[in-house]
User: Which sequence fits this backbone?
């Protein structure tokens, strides 16, 4: 099973709200003191691939379209024991829209050869729009399923479990396919072993420019012909929390219960 | 701008989500002129077409029995075939799993643009703009969709329902078969939470990492039942395996918009906020008065949930008699 995992680098989403600032000119978040991290769903995707490799031996390639520091995402992927890593360098300044990203990733996938599985995180921790996976599947002409949290190989085919709004579904099919991956208790990303971290620096990391993929950077990296963020702001909160009061726990809970009942009764 | 089409699945009927999508469609249509169409896939739930006919200009139903079973390739193909002749400028869908899944590929197939989880959709100088949360709920972003059609799934419960037009829509049946595909859904399981989907729920009681294990969620379910609420959970609780993934609320799970969201031992880190920030009223139980959740609450109680929950359950049972 030859697997490709697309991995995105984002500003750490765990930065507290009070430290979050918007660059109103660039229409994106200010870097501030935030670290750049691998998006959590990308890591869930890689973890899923690593577990699958035990049951269905094959090679895993981690692919990142990003700035220079995208190398960190890939070194960590190699340290988690991915076999290959490829960085496609983002040259432009503006944040590319998902169609641009899908076109770049598709070109890299085609250059890398045929894969049985392409895995993408369900959405990213920064913008969280979640369109890239579906658009990439469309670009590559691959069957698509989203919100997968478990992959099994059975009788020459794939058996997938995916989450839904009311539970889960099982899907079956034959590779190739593109799947978006979501988190579950079974794909919490592993922490790389120290030895593997050191070994990761010995593994090759391929770097490509857009030109290497036959793409026109100037035309593509305007990145706004699909959609464009025209405004980004932190909304003012006009809600003031009323902490219920009381002399005893009983009194406080009573007051709280009354407030809850009031809202619920109004809802009907 | 041209026409607006809303896409609905017959199995859900005119649930609150469908009402929100249609409402958004009506408001867009009023802004831009043109007609409002509804496309219904799968046999419509009883009463759905009648209710819909009072709200839109035209309904196209692909109601064959096999379409009741959504398939990623098959349903996408059917939708593309239904929408192409309608040539809408905007396609709106709800926030159910299937609508979310078809959105990007439907846009690709129709040559348009797509966006997810919009809480507002409108026109600005003829262009389609939509607003959604970004950066884990810390910011609001306004997007301009560049190509037509703009295919957008909306956080439907957060949008106001439509109003009767005073006319009856024409209803047209279409026979379209689902093409075969190499990847098929073969089993569908509902998790054991009776009642509506979290996206539909009017009241949600949600627990976080502070609950420490699966058993406290049973107490939460009992509390929830006193006020007709559904139960939800933070990502931490789901990743720990304490509750099923379908309970997960937050950036990484469901995006909900209930009338009341009761957060029990949830700190309010922003990823969770992205999921529940559109709740009308948020209230919380937490031992930490500085917990970020309280900044979004109308009211709260600073106490240990272990002491609060049983007592609260008791009091609400009395109050609701």
Assistant:
């Amino acid at each position: 099973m030859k697997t490709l995992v697309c991995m995105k680098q984002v500003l750490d989403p765990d930065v507290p709200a009070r430290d979050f600032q918007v660059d109103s000119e660039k229409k994106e978040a200010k870097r501030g003191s935030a670290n750049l991290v691998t998006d959590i769903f990308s890591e869930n995707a890689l973890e899923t691939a690593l577990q699958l490799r035990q049951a269905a031996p094959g090679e895993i390639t981690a692919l990142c379209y990003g700035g220079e520091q995208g190398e960190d995402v890939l070194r960590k992927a190699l340290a988690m024991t991915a076999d290959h890593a490829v960085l496609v360098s983002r040259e432009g300044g503006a944040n590319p829209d998902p169609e641009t990203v899908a076109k770049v990733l598709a070109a890299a996938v085609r250059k890398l050869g045929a894969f049985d599985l392409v895995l993408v995180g369900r959405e990213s921790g920064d913008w969280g729009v979640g369109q890239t996976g579906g658009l990439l599947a469309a670009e590559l002409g691959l069957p698509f399923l989203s919100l997968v949290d478990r992959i099994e190989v059975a009788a020459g085919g794939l058996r997938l479990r995916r989450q839904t709004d009311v539970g889960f579904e099982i899907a079956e099919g034959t590779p190739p396919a593109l799947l978006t991956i979501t988190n579950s208790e079974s794909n919490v990303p592993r922490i790389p072993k120290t030895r593997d971290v050191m070994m990761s620096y010995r593994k090759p990391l391929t770097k490509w420019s857009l030109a290497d993929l036959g793409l026109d950077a100037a035309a593509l990296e305007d990145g706004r012909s699909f959609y464009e963020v025209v405004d980004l702001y932190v909304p003012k909160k006009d809600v003031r929390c009323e902490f219920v009061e009381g002399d005893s726990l009983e009194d406080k809970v009573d007051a709280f219960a009354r407030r809850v009942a009031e809202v619920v009764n109004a809802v009907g | 701008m041209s026409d607006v089409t809303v896409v609905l699945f017959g199995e859900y009927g005119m649930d609150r989500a469908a009402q929100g999508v249609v409402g958004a469609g009506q408001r867009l249509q009023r802004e831009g002129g043109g007609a409002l169409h509804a496309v219904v896939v799968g046999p419509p739930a009883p009463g759905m077409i009648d209710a819909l006919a009072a709200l839109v200009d035209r309904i196209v139903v692909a109601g064959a029995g096999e379409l009741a079973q959504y398939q990623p390739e098959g349903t996408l193909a059917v939708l593309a075939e239904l929408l192409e002749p309608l040539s809408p400028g905007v396609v709106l869908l709800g926030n159910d799993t299937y609508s979310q899944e078809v959105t990007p590929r439907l846009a690709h197939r129709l040559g348009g643009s797509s966006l997810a989880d919009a809480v507002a959709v409108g026109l600005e100088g003829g262009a389609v703009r939509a607003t959604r949360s970004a950066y884990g709920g810390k910011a609001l972003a306004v997007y301009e969709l560049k190509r037509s059609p703009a295919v957008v799934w909306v956080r439907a419960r957060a949008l106001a329902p439509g109003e009767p037009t005073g006319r009856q829509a024409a209803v047209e049946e279409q026979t379209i078969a689902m093409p075969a595909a190499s990847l098929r859904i073969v089993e569908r399981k509902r998790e054991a939470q009776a009642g509506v989907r979290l996206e539909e729920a009017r009241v949600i009681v949600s627990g976080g990492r502070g609950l420490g294990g699966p058993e406290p969620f049973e107490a939460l379910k009992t509390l929830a039942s006193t006020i007709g609420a559904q139960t939800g959970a933070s990502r931490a609780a789901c990743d720990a395996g304490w509750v099923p993934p379908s309970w997960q609320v937050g950036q990484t799970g469901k995006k909900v918009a209930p009338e009341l969201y009761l957060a029990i031992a949830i700190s309010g880190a922003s990823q969770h906020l992205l999921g529940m920030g559109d709740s009308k009223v948020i209230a919380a139980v937490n031992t930490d008065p500085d917990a970020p959740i309280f900044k979004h609450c109308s009211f709260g109680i600073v106490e240990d949930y272990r002491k609060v929950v049983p007592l609260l359950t008791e009091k609400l049972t009395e109050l609701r008699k």
Observations:
- Chain A has two domains: 3-220, 236-268.
- The CA atoms of residues 99 and 226 of chain A lie 6 Å apart.
